[in-house]
Amino acid sequence: MKLLSKKGLLSLTVAAIMMATTACGGDQDTSAKDKGGGASSGQKKVVFWHAMGGSNTKVVDQLVADFNASQDKIKVEAVFQGTYDDLLSKLKASMGTKDGPSLVQMYEIGSRFMIDSKTITPMQKFIDEDKFDLTQLEPNITGYYTLNGKLNSMPFNTSNPILYYNKDLFKAAGLDPEKPPKTYEELQKAADAITKTGKATGANFAIYGWFMEQFFANQGAEYVNNGNGRTAPATESIVNSEAGIKTLTWWKDLIDTKAANNLGRKTDDSKKAFSAGQVGMILESTASLKGLVDNAEGKFQVGTGFLPKPANAKEGGVVVGGASLWIMNDRPNDEQKATWEFIKFLTSPKEQAYWHINTGYFPITKKAYDEQSVKDNLKKFPQFQTAVDQLHQTKMSTATQGAVMGVFPEARQIVEGAIEEVLNNKKSPKDALDAAAKDITSKIQQYNKTVK
């Protein structure tokens, strides 16, 4: 296995990623379970490490069981490894030993680290060898994981953020419940109207760095230099650009005018306030849709809208969140090929339909939308159409492909600290973002030295 000569990359980046909050979909249940037992003689064993906790563990186990039953040459064993952070820590500890996985799920902001670690075989190798038709997959999803024209990993659990709103509170405030706000300015007016009814606070956004990254992309703005780290490795954070200052100024105005409240960093607190009817609008991942609709049943109607942006913003869109699958290069070639066979199975329309319906994540395969089960599910949860439309209307650019940097988890934490300082009246938006950009830039440059 080719490991970097300097241990700095692994230690620095793992420390950074360990600090990160769990990205959408990872679960806090850390009781690792060994699934499926060993392979029988003649079968090729594939060990799959993942971070899909809670009810999603059962969905992963079912997909694995279906694959194992579909043929007799490969036996996949799924092992739940806790949160994304736990998984990364265990992966780092396994590097250079024979105890690592054949296939690993890694959250999207760990992508640069996975590439720089030199421990993976790019998915493109198997795609080219097999003449696998990439056009069958959603381009706005594969775009995130493509660098220098090469798909490095296969998207697995994919989401993006949408606006959720309480239609009953909209009606009570004299707003059209079928017209969610599309711009910062419209959202400010709607939130203000809801607060003035005295029934609830207009809006709440959790202090989550992922949302700030999305607000940038939605304005067609990059988050780091060098084409968002895609035309060349990023050397500088540009979180203090006009897109950032405009967003944070608007967010603070919402708080100052009581059109929104500040419940801190936990997205769960934001969701609870929304489900209790205490706030009229929140931002949240598409993966939370079923839970939010179910929790509101019998209390109020949930509406969904696109992520808002400034009225005069450039064309943009949303960046996909979630995680993807990486093949580890220290496994024998036949084991890597067996892993690829499992990945192809996961991308089939039928399996993608099952995954989507049972988890709320996007199907990555276009034809999954033709499956009757998906059509029926969209009838039951029409709110999900907003998420599908938002994904498809996103114009592909370096801004909407998303930023790539080796210290992304740490950068996200720094940005969250800056947002807190502004909302708590400690710094102006410009001063807070200037300091954040300087801090992130320093960490990027430190990281880049370990990669060279």
Please describe what this structure looks like:
- The chain is α/β, with parallel strands linked by helices and 452 residues long.
- It is 47% helix and 14% strand.
- It is built from 20 helices and 13 strands.
- Strands 1, 2, 3, 4, 7 and 13 form a six-stranded mixed beta sheet that branches. Strands 10-9-11-8-12 form a five-stranded mixed beta sheet. Strands 5-6 form a two-stranded antiparallel sheet.
- The chain is globular, with a radius of gyration of 22 Å.
- The model is unreliable at 1-36 (pLDDT under 50).
Globular, elongated, flat, extended or rod-shaped: what is the shape?
globular
Category by helix and strand content: alpha/beta
Rounded to an integer, what's the Rg over CA atoms? 22 Å
- Average pLDDT across residues? 91
Task: Report the span from N to C terminus.
Answer: 18 Å
Uncertain parts: 1-36
Q: How many alpha or pi helices? A: 20
Largest sheet: 6 strands, mixed
Q: Assess the beta-strand content as a share of residues.
A: 5-15%
Got a strand count? 13
Residue share in helix: 40-55%
